[in-house]
Amino acid sequence: MRIGPYTFDSNLFLSPLAGYTNLPFRLVVREIGGVDWTTTDLVNARSLIERNPRALQLIRTCPAEKLLAVQLFGAVPEEMRDAAALVESLGIASVDINMGCPVKKVVGIGGGSAMMTELGKTARLVRGMIDAVKIPVTAKMRLGWDEQNLTAPDLARVLEDNGVAAIFVHGRTRAQGFSGTVNLAGIRAVVQAVRRIPVIGNGDVTTPEAAKKMLDETGCAGVSIGRGAFYNPWIFAHTRRFLATGQPSPEPGYAERVQVMRRHLDLMIEVFGEDYGCRLFRRPAAWYAKRFGPAKEFKRGVTQFRTRAEFEALLASYERWRAPFLDESGELRAAYRPGPLVASFMRDDDPDEPAVLRREAIPVPKGPVDVW
Ligand SMILES: Cc1cc2nc3c(=O)[nH]c(=O)nc-3n(C[C@H](O)[C@H](O)[C@H](O)COP(=O)(O)O)c2cc1C
């Protein structure tokens, strides 16, 4: 895989997920393996140049994150240019431009998916950023504003002509939000519109099989995974293996899940402090529990803890509660094991798709960003 001057092994990417793709989560997925390039949550360009502490927190990184892109949003060319220069001065590998966000606050100022509606203006803004930095500048977009305005192929071509190093494309329109299924033909049209730069497909990938289907059917150079990684941070490692060998990977067992969950919490506390780190970790902790088998007792307590010690006490009491569901070898009894992971853009009514690949929809987490 190549983006600008960088060559790296994995063609799998972690998508930006505002509120979640913080440094601890990015490190956890990297440590599990299968991903070389990650992106921060979207960062307001103006806040960054004003050195707003929240914006600085969003771009916090460490040497283990060699290939990191900071994603900027904004519509004022000078602010986007200066923010890109600031990112470069901090030694960060790349800058990504948000052209897909449908949230009113972002679109209202001409940023996010509004950038897909004015190609000339967007091209000038992007050009200004590219001229100001040496690091590669990439763009993340949707297919267009709505079905009648599928501007992604034209925009991708214009951006390539202006020096953008890669395009990330979520196969839905702004009007679609997260409804419906990902449009693989729409992603393919973007792949066909550019000449040299890589196009990375995105949307609804929750299994290695779904990633392969996206690569095969769109011709994209790589796949970016967002929500699929919330629920399964092992997805990159498993997908890499599947793409290389055709072999599925065994699902991690309970002990491994708990080990990774603890590591994630340690990093949350290191980065955000104990109180805030624990509170922020309540939701991710519940995601880990989705694959624990019976977890009612864990989920009940997980909305409360405020310290590492409380978390450990919760885990210990959960493990006592869980014991009756285990057999003599300490494994979950068959009746309690979670079902297979499934992917959403495989049609439910398509008899050729194995059941393991089907699913209605991936949940979008509730909260201030649930309109993404
Ligand atoms: C909670 C949430 C936050 C998101 N935040 C961002 C963001 O900051 N920047 C961005 O470009 N896309 C953002 N997205 C969109 C994702 O990067 C991705 O394009 C989308 O979720 C589809 O991929 P998926 O099906 O693999 O999740 C967000 C999506 C969700 C669900």
Entry keywords:
single chain; 372 residues; alpha/beta; TIM Barrel; Non-ribosomal Peptide Synthetase Peptidyl Carrier Protein, Chain A; 8-stranded parallel beta barrel; two-stranded antiparallel sheet; 15 helices; disordered C terminus
CATH class type of the largest domain: Alpha Beta
The low-confidence parts are: 345-360, 368-372
N- and C-termini, Cα separation:
28 Å
> What general outline do the C-alpha atoms trace?
globular
**DSSP summary, beta strand count:** 10
* Strand residue percentage: 5-15%
Number of helical segments?
Answer: 15
Binned, the helix content reads: 40-55%
Q: Please compute the radius of gyration using only Cα atoms.
A: 21 Å
Protein described:
With about 375 residues, the protein is an alpha/beta fold. It has 2 domains: about 1-245, TIM Barrel (Alpha-Beta Barrel); about 255-335, Non-ribosomal Peptide Synthetase Peptidyl Carrier Protein, Chain A (Orthogonal Bundle), CATH 1.10.1200. It is built from 15 helices and 10 strands. The protein starts with a strand and ends in a 50-residue tail after the last helix. Flavin mononucleotide (FMN) binds near residues 41, 226, 227, 362 and 365.
Question: Quick summary of this structure?
Answer:
This protein is α/β, with parallel strands linked by helices and 372 residues long.
